[in-house]
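Request: Mind sharing a record?
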Amino acid sequence: MAPRAVDLDAIHLACKEAGVAFDPEGGVGGGPVVQPTSETSLGVLIAALSSRSAKANVRLLPVGTGGQLSWCRPDQCMAPDGSLQLAMPALLGGSGASGVVEYVPGDGTLTALAGADVSVLRATVAEGGHRLTPALFGAATLGGVLAAGRSGLDQHSLGPTRHHLLGMRMIDGSGRHLRSGGRLVKNVTGFDLHRLHAGARGIFGPIVEASMRLMPEPEAEQYLMSGPCASAAEAVELALEVRGATKVREQALFVRDRATHVLLAGRSAQVDADRRRLERLLPGLVERDAGPGAENFHLAGAQQAGVRLSTVPSRVAGTVKTLETWLGDLASAVIVPGVAHVDLPTELLSEASSWPDRLDARLDPRAPLPLALRDPSDPSGLPERAQDRWRGRLIEAFDPAGLFQIEGFPARG
């Protein structure tokens, strides 16, 4: 299918009405981008583009800094062809602005603009003895993380990111400024409409501000790693033994590089007791530098999977053993035995000739599969998804003109 041509005349007129800068080649991947400097101009721009979208075939994609595009669209790390990108860093108020609107240590809440850098927010709340959930590191903005629906390894103990979202301000496809929820835990009332936008990938409009519930910093924290095992399956067996013999329940535990990675966090006495148990269970145990917020641990467990396999803890070791027989070394895979997830990177799949005949796990493709692994009856390599009636009704309510509805984006609904 040929890429849709962007109607530059319609965009120029809309930008002139809103007083917004337009750059035909300044976006992610060299695409056209608009860069509003205030929420008012952003609302006017969206309303102007919405009124022209039917005739001009203009489609707007909130990209922020583009850091989370690959999580929304795993098959490519740039904006889809034929879309007009919406960048909002200027809404922060300047290059030196933090984007923090309000931090209330006593209530354990943070309100920030969508373009705020997550690392800046993490440092801000650390000064008050708090931790930001999700535990994500690297280049990311708050709006990008929320729109992409990303969660860190801490979701297994604290819940996904959307559970910590208290409130939000956003602009819908008609240019209306909307608010849902509140800034403080005690002020959150009504329907949780703001959680609809967590993971919606911008199809209802751009997020401009969000309020998050924070977690207290643990009293002690240690990142430990076992020596390498002969196979990933053997490392999984060790991890399951750790899970059953210690109180490492709420902390993340995963396998990568044929080694078991453990993060101990909590009261000092409990962390020390679990450390002593791990020294008896895990051969070659070493302590890694956890860094602020256990950064190294979460970076080691970060994996943008081509395929996720989900099973039950009692079967995860057998599933990994079968995969090793068919795919070879699984050193680059991230295996979380406690929740029985096996995340396989795309580069590992590219070398596979076929799937095992029998695999006690549910297959969830996160990116287009190699030809050798596709079901012949499904040329896309992705499972068929039933038409979501609620999604259609929500789009009609938030984006009646279809300004944010781009064909093929997001790649996963």
Remarks:
- The first strand starts at residue 21 and ends at 23.
- DSSP finds twelve helices and 19 strands in the chain.
- The two ends are 20 Å apart (CA to CA).
